[in-house]
Amino acid sequence: MYNCKHIEGVSVTAVADQSKKLLSKAEGFGVKKLYTDYHDLLKYPDSLDAVIISLPNFLHRESVEVALEAGLNVFVEKPLAPTVEECEKIVKCVEKSGRKLMVGHSMRFLDAVERMKDQVADGHIGSLETITAEEILNGPFSHGAVPSPIPEWWFNPETTGGGVLLDLGYHMIDLFRFFAGDADVISSCLDHKMNLPMEDAAILLLRSKSSNTKGIINVGWYQQSIFPSFNFRFIAHGNAGFISTDQFTPKNMYVHAIKEGTKNLFRKATGRKIRALSYTYYYEQYIKEMGLFFECINKDLEPPVTALDGLRTVEVISKAYLMSSP
Question: What CATH number does residue 320 fall under?
Fold first, then answer.
């Protein structure tokens, strides 16, 4: 909702959530239509152009299908759905509906990743040989966006569909696909460092189906991190050099925040559009992806991340889980 407020031509007219606190917050942002059940919100599709779905994983398929059947365009947070079967049903539903669906593969729109993609495509590192993608954070335990106490569904494999591999690994696998094409799993190692009912650490070895590119995915929930500390890096190794997100990420996040805050003040004073969340660096990706979603609706374009992208990523994760099963 906050991100939409900063996209020109977009207005949030309705919100559905079981949390009275969050509905009250939406009301404070000027949203008039408030519901505790999203089915009630979807009873009036003529007043909407699109919906944004940010529900627990196990509710994605049903909510996406209901929204598409109501004739609405859909943005859904990752994962598209927790299982391959559910993802396949969504892909068919999108094709049948003729509507736009975009999945929140937000890491593609991180400034450092976008710049890397351009340079790799321009041949700066020669042929892409190996990719290293890693993200090790604190998971749901002390993340500001996760409600406290943590909802029970987070720790139920039947409702989440998986642990850190489906959470952080999903993004890293998608980045591999973004640079190297569809992936196959060579090796999978899952770990349980905190005795959870799902994995809290995972290392995968991937291989591109269309080239010789290999990939190493390393993700974990086991490391205490407090923003602006962000243990993420993506490295592309070629036969003529390498390139890394570390080369483009601000060296000092506090200095970066001050500079961007000052630039936004100048933009506002001169009547130009501010870059909301640019001072955070990492969180600006969410506004970028949302802006692209609405641009695709307005210009009748194919979204940059489709239901098929979501399906392919979950297929890789599913293979990794099967490979690691006893």
Answer: 3.30.360.10
